[in-house]
Automatic annotation (TrEMBL), chain A:
The chain crosses the membrane at residues 6-26, 95-114. Keywords: Membrane, Transmembrane, Transmembrane helix. It comes from the Bacteria. This is Stage V sporulation protein AE. The keyword Endoplasmic reticulum does not apply. Pfam families: SpoVAC_SpoVAEB. The gene is spoVAE. InterPro entries: Spore_V_AE, SpoVA. PANTHER family: STAGE V SPORULATION PROTEIN AC-RELATED, STAGE V SPORULATION PROTEIN AEB. It comes from Psychrobacillus soli.
Automatic annotation (TrEMBL), chain B:
It comes from the Bacteria. The chain crosses the membrane at residues 20-45, 57-76, 83-103, 118-139. This is Stage V sporulation protein AC. PANTHER family: STAGE V SPORULATION PROTEIN AC, STAGE V SPORULATION PROTEIN AC-RELATED. The gene is spoVAC. Pfam families: SpoVAC_SpoVAEB. It comes from Psychrobacillus soli. Keywords: Membrane, Transmembrane, Transmembrane helix.
Length: 121, 151
């Protein structure tokens, strides 16, 4: 248990280091950085490399935004395996529903509860 | 001329130490967030019938819920000022972008304000995630069909 906490700390931290390098060294905005990382995660899954990383690092691989690109690609590929080319479109949100649905639900609830302040973002 | 030389000198001198400190901060903050995520994953595996792989979904939802409170109280802003990419790259940064946009635009009404602007900051992630997933899956499916690679 302790060892998987350490691997998730190190792997998750390394994803953030890549993001920080993109932001500082390549002067990308946060939106560009996150989009790049999502594309990166989706390409990794295309080569079948992201699932082994999840097995190794657990939350260190599922919490960074790269895992969003991975699960989109993963759902599309799983559905394409069953139903052919059309599955690429129909399967896309099969695996990764929770991040978006949770963000929408808690976003609206949060907007109900909390008042605007100049420090939210 | 002297000012230009000075600017060049400043540009050449400053980035390296700042970059290193920022990277260290990002590593620590991002690693800590992922470790908290791993603890929540353990919780879901131990007390609910999730496996190592399926526990990622409830973990993400739980972390977004925590971020809702941190964003509403303004704490996440402080974390992200310290952590930089360390707080933006984990899914908590995605949640923070969505939730803060919702709170920010509440005054413009529920449909046009919240509904229209909720993905203002985080929309690019979804758009390019879906686009790249489409092309990656399309290319791989075609490659499998013509027998170059296997699933």
């Amino acid at each position: 248990m302790i060892s998987s906490l350490i691997t998730s700390f190190v792997v998750g931290g390394l994803f953030c280091v890549i993001g920080q390098i993109l932001m500082d060294a390549f002067k990308l905005t946060p939106a560009h950085t996150l989009s790049t990382l999502v594309v990166f995660g989706s390409i990794l899954d295309g080569f079948g490399l992201y699932e082994p990383l999840i097995d190794f690092a657990g939350a260190g691989a599922t919490i960074p935004i790269t895992s969003f690109g991975n699960s989109l690609t993963h759902g599309a590929l799983a559905e394409a395996e069953k139903h052919g080319l059309i599955g690429v479109i129909t399967g896309m949100f099969e695996v990764t529903s929770s991040g978006i649905s949770a963000a929408i639900i808690f976003g609206v609830i949060g907007a109900f509860i909390f008042q605007k302040r100049n420090t939210t973002y | 001329m002297e000012q230009k030389q000075f600017d060049k000198l400043v540009e050449r001198q400053t980035p390296k130490p700042v970059l290193f400190v920022n990277i260290l901060k990002a590593f620590l903050v991002g690693g800590t967030i992922c470790t908290i995520g791993q603890l929540i994953t353990f919780f879901y595996i131990r007390f609910f019938s999730f496996t190592e792989r399926t526990a990622a979904n409830p973990t993400v939802a739980t972390m977004v819920f925590i971020v809702m409170i941190l964003t509403g109280t303004g704490l996440y802003k402080k974390i992200s000022q310290f952590g930089g990419a360390g707080s933006a790259v984990p899914v908590t940064g995605f949640g923070n972008a969505v939730i803060s946009a919702a709170i920010e635009h509440k005054s413009e009404g529920y449909v046009l304000g919240i509904g229209g602007n909720i993905f203002k900051l985080a929309g690019s992630v979804i758009v390019f995630g879906v686009l790249s997933a489409f092309f990656v899956a399309l290319i791989k499916t075609i490659l499998v069909k013509i027998g170059v690679v296997s699933w």
